[in-house]
Automatic annotation (TrEMBL), chains A, B:
<dbReference type="Pfam" id="PF03976">
    <property type="entry name" value="PPK2"/>
</dbReference>
<dbReference type="InterPro" id="IPR016898">
    <property type="entry name" value="Polyphosphate_phosphotransfera"/>
</dbReference>
<protein>
    <submittedName>
        <fullName>Polyphosphate:AMP phosphotransferase</fullName>
        <ecNumber>2.7.4.-</ecNumber>
    </submittedName>
</protein>
<dbReference type="GO" id="GO:0006797">
    <property type="term" value="P:polyphosphate metabolic process"/>
</dbReference>
<dbReference type="InterPro" id="IPR022488">
    <property type="entry name" value="PPK2-related"/>
</dbReference>
<keyword id="KW-0418">Kinase</keyword>
<dbReference type="GO" id="GO:0008976">
    <property type="term" value="F:polyphosphate kinase activity"/>
</dbReference>
<dbReference type="InterPro" id="IPR022300">
    <property type="entry name" value="PPK2-rel_1"/>
</dbReference>
<keyword id="KW-0808">Transferase</keyword>
<comment type="similarity">
    <text>Belongs to the polyphosphate kinase 2 (PPK2) family. Class I subfamily.</text>
</comment>
<dbReference type="InterPro" id="IPR027417">
    <property type="entry name" value="P-loop_NTPase"/>
</dbReference>
<feature type="domain" description="Polyphosphate kinase-2-related">
    <location>
        <begin position="33"/>
        <end position="260"/>
    </location>
</feature>
């Protein structure tokens, strides 16, 4: 059953962004039935697998397509869960997750896009960035390691870099997983309470949480400055996991369908080949 | 003995470039004495080693410096020889040569700057590009694989990319090794005649040689479009190896001296440390 996706426009980031005005608890992609949502997500995951196969098959085409999904959001906003959920039907052969932590010594010895460029999608590949180059305009700015002028330069570098990927056949989907501070408290507490999840908890996360408003403001600046025609941002209300998964799966399916991929033609005459 | 380097300005590429007007046989950096030139080059190589040590020592500084030397030129123009000669005194620890051949399948599956970015200099490092990302606006254009619009986009990407390296502390020196068609004939013939050098000869080089004028024109466009304030090009008359080596060694020594590097201060109180 095809559902209207007109709501997506509302969540696409334009020149200005006020995250306060977007309800993290909204569920525009979800219905009132959990079962129906699960069924719809299962459908979408199968469709994404079909399209990702086509993408992979076209990896040797004249202008091979690539897909980059950038996931950003506060701690516990569900970046891991999204990647698992949206691509659950896909073969790992063509889907790769690149997670970015605090840069290592080697990485810091280069410009901030160096490590990112190195893991960008190759022909026919889907790559999910779990955190990304956007961390480099968030953390260092909020922590006061860089000033507004340096942030501005980095934002320009990001736009030039994403333009390069775009010009080279990469479709870019960027999602900000928008959760509320209350929801984060519950999820952090759950991590603390559950011995199986406790490893995910870091004391430093609490320090970041204390700077919630500063981080939201930094996100507003970064997202508005980099939501370009070739690499737009969507704000995804993420207090509801169903909404988050459905909305991002829809964006991914739309991006893949928009490539209008066909199975590549063989470079030999199939009629002339005989299996004996 | 300090020599005037005022001639360098003449060879710095501006907004327009006519290679026909620059004599490949010129020897602005050389003298009439081969011995004096050799001695001067030996002096420069020692100075470059001293400065490269300082560069390496500052690899963990707050804003660590890096040096990128880009060497471009027709076949046999002396790119290998330059790298060997200019850095002959340096430790290989801090000097790396990255050679770019026709892109592999993996490399072609990415944008054209991907493989280049991956080997860009890290903090405190000198990297020499033997050929470079400039090949991607030369060969494909002359061969008709890309049109002028795509070349234009790539040139813009190159400028943005080099700006990124520059903003991240990389000093960029770019040299076009300018030889005459006659000189190339002699050098190619010498490769063919010398069994020890024959491996360097490829039949494809002759096809490229037939397109000499088209390649010169492509170089003129590329060099003029990318000779920016932060990454200027110099045309180096290269029929004379002495001139070529002296001129490039001078540019490298100037670039390193321009960083005004000092030995980094230790992060402990040396007076409080006792070796017992």
């Amino acid at each position: 059953m095809a559902r209207s996706t007109a709501y997506l426009k509302t969540y696409r980031v334009g020149r200005k962004l006020r995250l306060k005005d977007i309800d993290p608890g909204a569920r525009p992609a979800a219905s009132s039935s959990r079962e129906a949502d699960d069924a719809r997500l299962a459908e979408l995951a199968i469709e994404i697998d079909r399209l990702q196969d086509l993408l992979y098959a076209n990896g040797s085409a004249g202008r091979p397509p690539k897909l980059l999904l950038v996931l950003q959001g506060m701690d516990t906003s569900g970046k891991d869960g999204t990647a698992r959920s949206v691509f659950r039907q896909c073969s790992p052969l063509g889907v790769r997750v690149a997670a970015f932590k605090a840069p290592t010594e080697v990485e810091r010895a280069h410009d901030f896009l160096w490590r990112v460029h190195a893991v960008a999608p190759r022909a026919g590949e889907v790559v999910v960035f779990n955190r990304s180059h956007y961390e480099d305009v968030l953390v260092p700015f909020v922590e006061g390691w860089i000033d507004a002028a340096e942030r501005q330069r980095r934002l320009a570098h990001i736009n030039a870099f994403e333009r390069l990927l775009h010009d080279s056949g990469t479709t870019i989907v960027k999602c900000f997983l928008h959760i509320s501070k209350d929801e984060q408290r519950e999820r952090l507490q759950a991590r603390l309470d559950d011995p199986a999840k406790r490893w995910k908890f870091q004391v430093g996360d609490l320090e970041t949480r204390e700077k919630w408003k500063a981080y939201l403001a930094a996100y507003e600046t970064a997202l508005a400055a980099t939501s370009t025609a070739c690499a737009p941002w969507h704000v995804v209300p993420a207090d509801s996991k169903s909404n988050r998964n459905l909305m991002i799966a829809t964006l991914v399916a739309q991006a893949l369908a928009g490539m209008k991929l066909k199975p590549p033609k063989p470079d030999f005459d199939p009629a002339a080949v005989r299996v004996v």
